[in-house]
Batch of 2 targets.
Target 1
Amino acid sequence: MLQRWSSSTNRKQILMDIIMNKMKASVKSRKISLKRKENTIMSSQKKKPCFNQIKEELPKENIYHTFKDPGEIYSFRASLLSWYDKNKRELPWRRMAMSESNLNKRAYAVWVSEIMLQQTQVATVIDYYNKWMLRWSNLQDLAKATLEEVNQMWSGLGYYSRGKRLHEGAQKISSEFKGEMPRSAEELQKLLPGVGRYTAAAIASIAFGEVIGVVDGNVIRVLCRTKAIGADCTSPTVTEALWMLANTLVDLVRPGDFNQAMMELGATVCTPKAPLCTECPVQTHCRAYQQVINEREMVSKRLLGNTTSQISSTPDIEECGDGGNCPLCLPEKEPWVSGLGVMNFPRKPTKKPPRIEHTLTCVVTRRRDNDDTEEYFLVQRPNSGLLAGMWEFPSVLLETEVKEKKQKCIIFDRLTELMGNLVTDTHLQNIGEVIHIFSHIHQTYLVYSNSFSDASGDTVMQEDREQPCFRWVSEAEFYQSAVPTSMKKVFRLFKHSSVNEKQLAKGDKLQCGSEKHEGKQKGRKRRAPKEVQGRQLSINSFFQPAAIKPL
Ligand code: SF4
């Protein structure tokens, strides 16, 4: 042991082992005691756990990143829950979780909300959630839907695989478990596709009252700040420590409310930027806040000339007592930054920059002789991978940089592949570009348009070949289809360019009437309008003909 202690890495490991063992022992003993209590708690109404009960569950040492005594846990829970009862936002899934007596329906309602809320803001989710629950109010109804309908409903929410997995999960429960939702976090995680540790714990605690903590982005922030955990919060060590803390802290009587309260606190008070510490119900338990106060006091002392003691630039905090080797503290290389205050926590590794991609895409239109309605050609994406099963304009991902002439050839080849000889390149033209950011891809769509001559209305596609599904849709049908946001942006650019084209033709006729001038105008490329591009054009670029960026 002494030999191991001699190196800094070993010291860190030994300390970590001690902390984790203490925490594990705490949670283990707590689990045993909770098992015993479970029946009593479920049947007894809102009985508060006594001080001695909590005391049994606590680690005795290494309290810097945990809790110093059972009273602190009790007080933390009470303050948070009382704040939550007064301040919680009224959200449709919360109403359902409170009012729905059927456990399967309640769990389904929570499950849908949890999946939709992954990576998406509450404000955006509300509308989607209400529509979804109106259409598929229970598991069985969702199980009967097609993936196409699910994608259609999900359109605009992003991360489409979430809807697909939810649908698969509903089908699985419906066919394999006779519509009965698994009742514990462990089973939920094991049996349902797309349900990870967090989602399983959230469903189990909110819908079934299982005493289990949750750790999502909001909870990570609250816990890292309250317990001054400054090591990389995505590392396995910190992740495990956070789960231990969450499981230690969760309220025994109201686990679902407590978990929601932690997330609510992170979302509305302990926010990533500009946290509202003065309004925080757990401020007295927060080590990050205490560090800020200590730092302020030090600065005041310094200003008053009290420099007799050695005052460092970092706050004189209550150290965790391991001489700088703690695997949960702020790393020595990246110490406390004064200007950041409580936002020193949590610390994340630098994000990998998104992959840069360029894709050619073409809006193909047709107008039938007997009907003046314009229709648009859509192709279905493969059933796996990015935007699985969604509809898009014919597209080709570019592997290398190519000039516009070559781009035209590539997209025209793709159109011929899909539509045969009925398509010509006479009207194929570049209309601009659209940028769309996926979570890990910075995608630039190089947008073309082409019109399809189909006077007879009996379009013959290359159905004999192995082709993806395709269809013609009206504008209204386009917006009702399962098309991703990126394609809606492309479509808006197309509509914008068509309007401009018409106005230009009208203006030319009225003002210029010159064929030469008209030709010049037609030859110009356009950028996507501001609302499509999502970025402001400079005044210079506004007056310049837009050019395709090098790939
Ligand atoms: Fe977060 Fe501030 Fe509350 Fe601490 S005091 S938990 S940093 S809001």
Target 2
Amino acid sequence: MAERMLKFTTTPKATPAKRAAETRSHDFHEIYADFIDAKAAEQASRCSQCGIPFCQTHCPLHNNIPDWLRMTAEGRLEEAYELSQATNSMPEVCGRICPQDRLCEGSCTIEQSGHGTVTIGAVERYLTDKAWEMGWVAPLKPGPARGRSVGVVGAGPAGLAAAERLREAGYAVTVYDRHDRAGGLLIYGIPSFKLEKEVVDRRTRRLAEGGVEFRLNFEVGRDATLDELRERHDAVLLAVGVYAARDLTAPGAGSAGVTAALDYLIASNRKGLGDTVPEFDSGALNAEGRDVVVIGGGDTAMDCVRTAVRQGATSVACLYRRDRANMPGSVREVAHAEEEGVVFEWLAAPRAVSGDAGRATGVRAARMRLGAPDPSGRQTPEEVEGADFELPASLVIKALGFDPENLPEAFAAPDLAVTRWGTVKADLRSMMTSIPGVFAAGDIVRGASLVVWAIRDGRDAADAIHAYLSQPALAAAE
Ligand code: FAD
Ligand code: SF4
Ligand code: SF4
């Protein structure tokens, strides 16, 4: 093995080719090319096959990274793919959009020794893209029918991961979603320059062809109550994500031209999917020829600034009240945005939206500094007096984060217990909510999080539902 692996001292780290900023800023295609075969093997061979692989510990799915890297280096690609998909329902999605710098790669031992991390995400993506290309991705094979059904509310990564596993275990599975397409934020949140839609659609098609029923344009709360779903199914999984956007309270925040991030991103994604989008066509949600200010410092803000660049904005600025080191978004995404011409105003908070006849013309911002740490140890931003400044903006995008909707009210389910933040309370082990037979997974339990955690939760919830429905008492009650 040693001669094929441990090449990190002689082989430098390399990522797949990235398209130049001047070219990629004009389209919505993904920015990285795939590894060519030889490069994937070469990069996988840099792994030192750690006895205690911290990469694996810090991957939420505990992917068996060292083993599939070794197989890739040895050219055993189909085996490597089989191993990687054994723990991950969508390895090619995670390979593209996990913030690896904070997860697997951030813990790679050779990075700590100054040699540059193994490019785990890029190899993971390469393996599964290769598997699709070669026909190694097998059709979903439903297990022997159990005569029991599960309703999954939400077709995001948590719901899809659960649906796949439940169907494989022989359950009849119906996935309900209020959107007209399945995929959740993978389709309508995350732009295609990070994750092309076909990558998600082929996953959904595989589920549908394997017998998972999709009921789209179906909103629980409007088209059925939770009680009605309980009647229809033996168990229900809530995987509805978090969609109540935090609002901007500054004066002028109600002006025309001030919009919520997800409305903006959904319009752009729909346009890319070929839909007719009146709010885009009217110019209301199109950044072309406009000065744009995005408020916020997370992944959503990064997606908005980079979308605005691609739509042909005149200028794009991002206001964040803390500094670069303290922003919640991925470091890699900030670097991409800077390359594409986005200006970051660190330590800046909106004071007011300036306007003319009710239309936004700019954002007045206060300069901040980081003060004393709060009880969590995070430094609190405080204003620097007399240092306000103004940025031009006819489109102001609010990307301040998301909270859960009021589910007990929306679902006419007062017994559904929620935390003080509005997330659904679910038992850590059984994943069951306060309502027997109703489970929950993904962002609606964790609060806004990551795709890889949603997949992990969806898989765990499927196992928990299977354990619940396999109890002798429930089987006897049939
Ligand atoms: P979602 O993906 O939100 O799916 C929930 C689904 O439930 C939706 O399809 C919704 O329509 C449906 N639904 C909601 N209510 C109802 C109802 N009443 N009836 C029927 N259906 C309903 N994470 C990363 O790891 N990497 C990234 O780069 C990244 N970028 C992001 C960019 C943006 C703009 C956003 C907003 C998030 C990003 N995230 C990223 C976070 C990630 O997308 C989420 O953590 C993940 O999608 C959560 O999965 P989920 O299945 O819990 O919920
Ligand atoms: Fe890394 Fe994400 Fe893949 Fe895990 S799923 S190995 S964290 S890229
Ligand atoms: Fe290989 Fe890095 Fe994981 Fe060690 S931590 S097994 S070097 S990928």
